[in-house]
Amino acid sequence: MGQPTRLGIIELLRAGELTVRHIPVGLGADAPSISKHLSLLRNVNLVGDRKEGINRFYRLLVPQAAQYLQCMDGKTVRRLEHKTDGAALGKTG
Fold first, then answer.
1. Which long-range contacts (CB under 8 A, 24 or more apart) does 16-24 make?
2. pTM, whole model, 2 decimals?
C-alpha cells in the first residue's frame, strides 16, 4: 500500500470525491495507471466509487487511512535516515 502513486491518490481523495480524469492532474500519472491503482484501493475497501452519467466518482472510505499511511511513511523515512546516518559513520543495521 505504500506505493507513492497510491499514497498520492489517498491524499487527493482526502479533500473529497474526484473522477479518474481529475486524479492524474494532481499526480502527473496517466489515466490507465491511476485506474489500476484505484482498482487495488477499491479491492481493499479504502476507496469507493459511484457512477453518475458517464463519470465515475471516487471517494476515500476510510478517512483515517491517510493519517495512518502518513504515520507509517514517516516511520519508514526515519528508519532510512537512521540507516543512512549509520552508514555514513561506518555502522551497519
1. 16/59, 17/57, 17/58, 17/59, 18/57, 18/58, 19/55, 19/56, 19/57, 19/58, 20/56, 20/58, 21/55, 23/58
2. 0.66
